[in-house]
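Hi Prof. W.,

I finally got the Protein-glutamate methylesterase/protein-glutamine glutaminase prediction working! I wasn't sure whether to trim anything, so I left the full sequence exactly as given:
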Amino acid sequence: MTDTKVFIVDDSAVVRQVLTGLLDSLPGVKVIGAAPDPIFALTRMEKDWPDVIILDIEMPRMDGITFLKKLMHEHPTPVVICSTLTAKGAEVTMQAMSAGAVDIITKPTVNLKGFLQDSKTLLADAIKGAAHARLKKSAIPSGKPLDGSPKLTADAVISPTSLISMTETTDRVVAIGTSTGGTQALEYVLTRLPRTTPGIVIVQHMPEAFTAAFAKRLDSLCQITVKEAEQNDRVIPGLALIAPGGKHMLLRRSGAQYRVEIKDGPLVSRHRPSVDVLFRSAAQAAGKNVLGIIMTGMGDDGAHGMKELHDTGALCVAQDEASCVVYGMPKEAVKLGGTDGELPLSAIPNLIMQSPNRAKFLKG
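And this is what came out:
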């Protein structure tokens, strides 16, 4: 395969210099140019169009969101947002994600150079995921991470236990895991759900400080309530809880109630929050009372957890290849035998509203 060509658009000379050096050090990645604003970028990219664009938001002459909308209309290209880690920046970045950006890299207001150098893994995964969003889905590999760092399993956060066959009840829980392309997919699904929808717990791979803005945006668009999860939040009908960036979220049972636990811990499957952690906890806390859904995303986070969930008798469904931005996580779940079928994104809201058990789903 040829190198992934990357172009950087950021008004900070330091960011352009550091990102160029870091990305050029990654195997299979080549920075073909950098520009301080979108106007300069467009002129330079005409000669050699990149596979992936890293884009800042606040820039002179043309802001990142305006450029992104123009790009998606005239020349759709995978875009990774590189945004300052502030509440204001998070809200604006969510607008960019809604406009079609595929991933986020956060940058702080202080010690910027050190932060970027420490974020090599994050950068590698973001570039790899964005590049695959452009490739034919059948060509997406599930190989090693670009920087070669180790990958931990859910054992690092939640111990595996013998699966207990739980009594099936009418108190259902929907557990959703997603990554690249997931912001748009979740918006599509959640905005189509009524207030009577079963309680939902969601892991969307997203950096710290961005999940609150993402949840707030979805809450403004949906009939159901959407919020960033907090420790001991109850899982109730008409409510969707989104795992906070930088924390793991686990489903727990307290008497007759389901609640969430928010906890620190290492990266699992290279992510925090991790879908594997959520799905394993759902298997232990609710078993066959869960509807598990794995949607668009790069890599394999969630595949093993979904297999554990599936083994309890829970109905587990993957988003199909045709409707995924990146058919990575669903593909791996299917390969492990942890799913009962695949559905297009358009069919997932109805699945959640019906919340069928496995027998009913398989019967059709």
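The chain has a mean pLDDT of 86. Does that look reasonable to you?

Thanks,
D.
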